[in-house]
Amino acid sequence: MRQVFFDTETTGLDPDKGDRVVEIGCVEMVDRQLTGRHLHLYLNPERDMPEEAFRVHGLSAEFLSDKPKFAEVADQVTAFLAGAQVVIHNAAFDIGFMNAELARIGAAPMAQTVASVLDTWQLAKELFPGKANSLDALCRRLEVDNSGRSFHGALLDAELLAEVYVRLTRGQHSLLGEEAQAEGEQGDDEDLGPFDFTALGLPVTALSDEEQAAHEGVLKGLDKDAGGACLWRKLESPQAVA
Q: Residue 157's closest CA among 188, 187, 121?
């Protein structure tokens, strides 16, 4: 599967009130492996830079004044995203801004270009209910090095998100099979509940004590990566999740 990890920086929080995209970062992954392809663009927002936004990303109106306008790079961005599953942390924010920029130039919204959108913020809320699930919080929980993140930056954040995603889904991504995975991507907010493996007609083989100990060691590693009980433990003991 081709995925693009995507992030933007903006002049503010509301595209309907004139806020604009000033930076776009995209990182490509195919079959859970980074390909080395990325897209990184600074954009002239054609307006001033509020102090609050400058404190977040450090991009001044002066720095952006000679950068291309969104209309000049829209085709480049659309081509990079085309046909991919786009992975975004708090997708509603970035998609809202991108659709506003696309609408200004009479272009189709993102939904007509990409294959699907996966919101890692929603995914993290399901895996870690009641906990902080910002990108910084997930980096700390999953032991992803974000020491270079003194400012928000679209490319850096997309790279961090790719690492967070791999660790967030390690040992769980292939467990339910491709069909269940596709269903999960189409309905990220749904509680899938425990998967019934008995329907697969799998043979049952008793483990030796040595094999059971090795299995427990693997589960402990998955627990550490997930910041709590991994999916396998939930499948083994559904009553513990209730």
A: 121
Alpha carbons 125 and 104: distance in angstroms, whole number: 33
CATH architecture of 2-169: 2-Layer Sandwich (3.30)
pLDDT grade, residue 181 (50/70/90)?
very low
Pairwise CA distance, residues 160 & 136, whole Å: 9
* 40 is annotated as contributing to ligand binding: no
What is the CA 156 to chain-centroid distance, rounded? 13
Give the bridge partners for 24, in sequence order: 8, 41
pLDDT at 204: 54
The yes-or-no verdict on residue 182 having pLDDT over 80 is: no
The answer to whether 89 is a known ligand-binding residue is no
Domain boundary assignment for the chain: 2-169, 193-240
User: Does residue 186 have a pLDDT over 60?
Assistant: no
Q: Is 143 annotated as a binding residue?
A: no
pTM of the complete model beyond 0.90:
no
Does the structure show a pLDDT above 60 at 166?
yes
- The pLDDT of 31-44, averaged and rounded, is 98
Q: What is the mean pLDDT of the chain?
A: 84
Q: Is there a binding annotation on residue 9?
A: yes
What residues act catalytically?
A: 152
- Cα Rg, the chain, nearest whole Å: 20
